[in-house]
Amino acid sequence: MQEKLLELANKIGIASSFSDAGMVRREYGVSPEILQKLLAALGYPAGTPREAEASLQKWDERRWRSVLEPVYVREQSNLCFDVVVPLETDASQISVRVFDEHNILYPVSFRIEEHQAEKAIDGRELKKNLIRLDGSLEIGYYTVAVSVGENEYKTMLAVAPERCYEAPGMEHKLWGYAIQLYSVKSERNWGVGDFTDLAELVKISAHSGADIIGLNPLNVLCHDFPENASPYQSISRLFLNPVYIDVERVPEYLSSDKLLIADLLDEIRNTELIAYGKIYPLKIKILEKCFERFQKSKDELRRDAFKKFCREQGDDLERLALFQSLYEVESPKVWGGWRAWPQEYRSPQAAGIKDFAAAHKDRIEFFKFLQFEADRQFSNAQKVVKDLGMKIGFYRDLAVGVGKDSAEYWSSPDLFIRDFGTGAPPDAFFPQGQKWGLCTFSPEALKEKRYQPFIKILRANMRNAGALRMDHVMSLMRLYVVEDEGSEGTYLYYNFEDMLNIVALESHLNQCVVVGESIGNIPDGFLDALHRRNIHPLSILWGERGDAGWGDFYAPEVYPREAFTSVGTHDIPPLKMWWFGYDIALNASLGIISEETKNEEYRKREGDRWKLLALLDRNGVWPGDRPRSGDYIYGENYPEGIEEAVHAFLARSNSQVFLAQLEDFLHVTQRQNLPGTDYDKHPNWRRRLPVALEKLVSDIAYIRNVAAIRRER
Q1: Does pLDDT of 1 surpass 70?
Q2: 298: Cβ–Cβ under 8 A, 6 or more apart, which residues?
């Protein structure tokens, strides 16, 4: 039984053992119980020897039971695909036609390489031939029709370039900002950063010499629970979060609307933390009034634009709006999300959906209107990017997964892995490992759907973007999955070459640079594969050092040229917090680390501070009027000018792109997110920047840090 179980797991791509990325690398064996659960969730039960044997046979015969696979993803230099035909089939009985996306016949010649393999299935003798197209095809998606005798079969051929897109101007060393849009403070917004703030930030950034603005994921979150604010827990990665709509810029908004909410607006603007539970309903209240006016409007151009948007977004928008309407009705009645709804509502095809949609037509249209307006305002911000000539512009962030209680999962539950969520084993930054609670694609189901869900998500997030950050890019090869009701997990492997080729193809079609967030447990050879495909790595100051994070910081010329470099990330303490060790104290206060570990981390941090000071000294990056004036042992003040020195050092690095964080400019001492905690323990995703947008360019810390960067870039 054990032998068959391991054989099956290996064939399907489930790791039966793995190593972590901790400070001391450890090996883990995966229990038979976890292997059996994951195999069953993927459609290959193996709870008994008989089941394991049957699943092995099912896997071995899977490819032989169809003439063509649903999709072939190939580089331009290797245009080939296999075809399964009866053993007696002669090459003269096979013909091939290729159609482009407009269904126009594309002239090609082909040759057949016979007898790649043979197999008997249900008494039929079959062989697998390889068909190779001569010449080349432009990158894109094609329909291939293969005739075998009198029968015709079709598949999709995705033709990819060898490397991802590279934006003009990236031969120069560029810089910009990594921001959390919600955190942007302004004198005019409604308590949370919005798309108008984003457009203003573009103007400020371009004036300062920046060419890129990194953004948190902007995807739509749960309408009924706005306090669930993690941008990495969206309900759909295809659409935008309406909280970023500037209500006062909606064409149907009236100035009198503000009189109804003036007192509450003053309150939510001045809270220490972003009060999503008050801000979002307030925006929705006024947006509902705007929608009522829109429905009665005689502005045919705007109404036609709405219809066009709905038509282009098609079933995906319809299902999101339907899901949100259902959720709004059902969430007060049952706890547990859509999986606890009445059976007649648990999928778009369920028995009660048609009647519900008819009865709630206006509300469904309202949710579509929110997406229409969010897209319009975001596109207007992108127009400012183009007008000001930023070389990259918006650098969007694509989350690795989607929330369990999401429109994506509800729309296509068979596409995702049942009873398992994503996470990560222990690593240098998170020694306890992580359990993210996100669902993710089943590799086989994704391929059966011709990778269309993945392609749509890439396109949606490359929209209005010059670059895309792929969160946890290792998921293109493998993803650590953890059982929902437990803590044990293992790695599940994907078709890496297919995934890489699709990313490269969409990168060119959308003219979007691709960046891979590869912090954590990185497989051997993985970074080399990304490099070959021109997927830029991320590099952070705290990671660019020797001895697995214990040694000296690297010199600027050692940094990878192709990297997008920053001091830290949203999950890592800002510079001033790190310096004083406030993050260590926070972890101890929440019971994340023990008292003994806390003392060990303080000792290590003291050594790290000395190493950082020595690095800045060696490279001569202290500001001329703020040289290092002491050793800054614990108890002394924050070193004046250290953030300028750090930014000058990273700006000097070999990396193509440097991203500064405004939190470091402005001496913030609280982190945006503490992984592994909910907002009842730590106010994740709720911190406002301390300086309003209107005052940013006159802020002395902003002025000095920009000057430090520009001296080096």
Answers
A1: no
A2: none
